[in-house]
Specification:
Layout: E1 12-16, E2 23-27, E3 47-50, H1 58-65, E4 69-73, H2 76-80, H3 82-92, E5 98-100, H4 109-121, E6 126-131, H5 133-145, E7 161-162, E8 167-172, E9 184-188, E10 195-201, E11 207-210, H6 220-239, H7 245-262, H8 272-288, H9 296-308, H10 312-330, H11 332-342, H12 351-369, H13 385-394, H14 407-415
Parallel strand pairs: 3-11, 4-5, 4-6, 6-8, 7-10, 8-11
Antiparallel strand pairs: 1-2, 9-10
Helix pairs in contact: 1-3, 4-5, 6-7, 6-8, 6-10, 7-8, 9-10, 9-13, 10-11, 10-12, 11-12, 13-14
Length: 418
């Protein structure tokens, strides 16, 4: 796979890693004495397939990872025909998978435990995840913990867990997944519905297949909502402390693509061209999150999703203005670097005016999407905010913010969203 990012009006230098995974053009100024390049180690062990009908590669891929396979999928894909595509590819290769349909967008750790039990009894060699972020997270947990954990309660609250994983193949169906190429997975604790990002040491997907056809049945409303969510995630990843010049290039390119798409009408039915472009932007973002991290909006969105079963993409969009206001104080330089993507005029402005213009331009873009922009519109009440704030503070992203936020500070922000 080759990824090339142009930089306007700048000389270029090409970085090509040892296994030729990536070819990335970066500004030569990074090599000048006045700005030494930061230390970097970049290793993605996962094989990536992107393109129309690449789901057909699933069968031959499973033969290389282990033919005793289990598909963890969202039940909605039984009627959509998406599950059939995956099963057909496996059958054509002589693989008869076990089917596990107890994962859903609002599933908890108990579903993962059932999957772990089934995988252990069936001596599963390959777990295949088919679905959105939560379903793939459940599938990753099954693949990661099958060899070491029957019960997942003990993993919550730990920074990193030793695992002996079976092979994992991911097939995303919701255009983006920030955990896709990482050892991290999102789980909802069944005891209290608190969301947590859990890290499995040395875990990685064997293969990820991004086939836009698997996302082609999403409505225009869903595409706009997911696009806004991806926009927020790119900004969060860009300003996160682990991000570097490679991941920042990935996030900026993905952000540029999403801003362009959201600035245009999304008609019904959604064209394959639009779905493909969003999938491309989502994959670039996933590559960025191999080192970058999520932030405040995603933490709140995942907390609300776990506690109140409200889609995270809806909540993250309404949090964007607050993320930008936070960035103005915590990392103004990075906010200004994002600026020209949303409004080229900021190049000719002073820092204060540019920051205000960037934030207002993003507000205008979100307004055009006609998405609910208050938590109260989703039925969230003031009495529920303290628990949301506490869950968001503990979810596993606070340590990667430019300036960490206390539970009280998150609560103060949430009060302004009602």
């Amino acid at each position: 796979m080759q990824v090339i990012f142009p930089f306007e009006n700048q000389s270029r230098c090409t970085i090509l890693d040892a296994r030729q995974f990536f070819k990335i053009e970066v500004p030569m100024e990074k090599w000048r004495d006045k700005e030494p390049m930061e230390d970097l180690y970049f290793d993605i062990a996962t094989k990536l397939h992107f393109g129309i009908d690449t789901v057909s590669l699933l069968g031959v891929t499973a033969l290389t990872t282990g033919a005793r396979a289990m598909i963890v999928y969202d039940p909605v894909h039984e009627a959509s025909g998406i599950l059939e595509k995956a099963v057909t590819s496996l059958s054509d290769a002589g693989v008869s998978p076990l089917l596990f349909n107890e994962a859903s967008p609002f599933t908890t750790s108990r579903a993962a435990e059932k999957g772990i039990e089934l995988a252990a009894k069936g001596q599963i060699q390959t777990v295949i995840g088919l679905g959105g972020t939560t379903v793939l997270s459940c599938a990753r947990a099954i693949a990661g913990f099958t060899g070491t954990h029957e019960h997942l309660d003990p993993v919550f609250g730990k920074n990193e867990i030793e695992v002996k994983p079976v092979q994992f193949i991911g097939l995303p169906t919701s255009l983006r997944d920030p955990f896709l190429l990482t050892p991290r997975t999102l789980l909802v604790d069944a005891r209290n519905r608190f969301s947590r990002i859990v890290t499995m040491k040395d875990f990685s997907a064997h293969t990820v297949i991004v086939d836009p056809v698997l996302s082609s049945q999403l409505s225009s409303v869903m595409v706009k909502s997911i696009g806004a969510d991806l926009l927020v995630q790119n900004i969060e990843g860009f300003i996160s402390t682990p991000s570097n010049f490679i991941t920042q290039s990935l996030f900026l390119r993905s952000l540029d693509m999403i801003v362009e798409l959201l600035g245009q009408p999304v008609d019904e039915p959604v064209s394959m061209e639009t779905v493909t472009r969003v999938c491309q932007a989502g994959l670039l973002s996933s590559l960025g999150f191999s080192m970058g991290r999520l932030g405040l909006a995603s933490a709140v969105a995942f907390a609300v999703k776990g506690l109140h079963q409200i889609p995270s993409s809806s909540v993250s969009a309404l949090m964007l203005p607050h993320v930008l206001e936070y960035a103005r104080t915590a990392c103004l330089d990075k906010l200004l670097r994002i600026g020209p993507i949303i409004n080229p005029e900021v190049r000719r402005m002073g820092a204060s005016q540019a920051a205000e213009t960037v934030i207002e331009s993003f507000r205008i873009l979100l307004g055009k999407l006609d998405l609910p922009m208050r938590l109260s519109l989703y039925g969230i009440e003031p009495r529920q905010l303290p628990l949301i704030a506490r869950t968001a503070a503990d979810i596993g992203v606070n340590g990667y913010l430019p300036v960490p936020l206390s539970t009280d500070e998150i609560l103060s922000i949430l009060k302004t969203t009602l």
